[in-house]
Amino acid sequence: MTNRRESESVLNKLLVQLFRDILDIEEKCLQNSEFSDLSVTEIHVIEAISIDKERTMSEVAYDLSITVGTLTTAINKLIKKGYVDRRRIEEDRRVVLITLTEKGKEVYKFHEEFHNDMIKYTIDSFSIEEETVLVSALKKISGFFEEKYHLIK
């Protein structure tokens, strides 16, 4: 059995490597798809908009923990690429609603399928007990980060 310091070192290396690997795999998957004109960041903006509703710019910026100005830059690019539509509401012209176009919905589904496959293949070889322990441990890690760094969920 390893000591606590070794466990911390291994866990740190694993979390950092997993994070990098997932982003790298997402990037390669995108580049080899019909959506190669998108970056991983743009995919995550599309994911935050959601597939089945209009959302305000403020809601999406809040969910992504970015400013509305930063989101506006991303949305302008996504509109030019044909993935997002934007409109102001008549009752209050300050409110800007964004929705996915059909093309945006296609990439949303593509990305959702990528994540579903990744999780399915990850836990397929696990026993129920291993799966339960993994989910419990990851919930604790996530809860720690949310509390320690005041993340909004």
Automatic annotation (TrEMBL):
Keywords attached to this entry: DNA-binding, Transcription, Transcription regulation
Domain HTH marR-type residues, every copy: 8-143
Recorded superkingdom: Bacteria
A Pfam family of this chain: Staph_reg_Sar_Rot
Location (main, coarse): cytoplasm
Compartmental location: Cytoplasm
InterPro entries documented for this protein: HTH_MarR-typ (IPR000835), Transc_reg_Sar_Rot_HTH (IPR055166), WH-like_DNA-bd_sf (IPR036388), WH_DNA-bd_sf (IPR036390)
UniProt similarity note: Belongs to the SarZ family.
Protein name (record): HTH-type transcriptional regulator SarZ
Biological source species: Clostridium hominis
